[in-house]
Design brief:
The protein is α+β, with helices and mostly antiparallel strands. It has four helices and four strands, in the order αααββββα.
Length: 193
């Protein structure tokens, strides 16, 4: 495949920004591209481009799954932060807080929670830790900021990936059209001979 060396900081920043996603290089001159080593036939080049396209599809699937996970995680973090802020207000009083908590999917239980300055947070992988309310709040705010930043980064990566789809599809069409044109010229030469 033809590659272009990008100079300056823009190229380095782009590679860091979309780490792991190879950039599809636009084939401007199909004739010179087809004369490069490894590009013997249009079918071979189309196979390479299709393989690259399938890799992009796989990356898109993975990034979309990560995006969905983050989109569901962010509201949960916000909800937990709201609960912590409510508990912070109630910790000064002596009366218990009446609430409903989730036991299982769509199964809630009524509970009376005495004023406390400690909470337990699920960290994942069946791990729960006890924190002071202030520590838990700062941890969740940090997690929310990280999740939001990761979501923005994922959306940028998905946009970049869509650009790579388009470039690869255009390259495939240009190589295919080159092959059709070359075959028709070969057929004309054979018929005129």
């Amino acid at each position: 495949m033809a590659t272009t060396i990008e100079s300056g900081n823009a190229g380095a920043a782009n590679k860091k920004k979309h780490l792991g996603i190879p950039e599809a290089i636009f084939v401007e001159d199909v004739d010179s591209f087809m004369k490069q080593p490894g590009n013997d036939t249009a079918d071979a080049v189309l196979r390479k481009l299709d393989e690259q396209y399938q890799k992009y599809k796989y990356m898109e699937l993975n990034l979309s799954q990560k995006k969905q996970r983050l989109k569901s995680q962010i509201p949960q973090i916000k909800q937990t932060l709201d609960i912590l802020k409510h508990m912070q207000k109630k910790k000064e009083t002596t009366e218990p807080m009446d609430t409903h908590f989730l036991l299982a999917d769509n199964v809630y239980c009524k509970a009376s929670v005495p004023p406390t300055d400690k909470v337990c947070l699920w960290l994942g992988a069946n791990v729960m830790l006890e924190y002071d309310i202030d520590e838990a709040e700062s941890l969740l705010e940090k997690n929310l900021a990280t999740a939001s930043k990761n979501l923005d980064s994922l959306e940028d990566d998905l946009d970049f990936l869509r650009d790579q789809f388009t470039t690869t599809e255009v390259n495939m069409a240009r190589v295919y059209n080159y092959d059709v044109k070359k075959r028709s010229q070969d057929n004309l030469l054979k018929s005129s001979s």
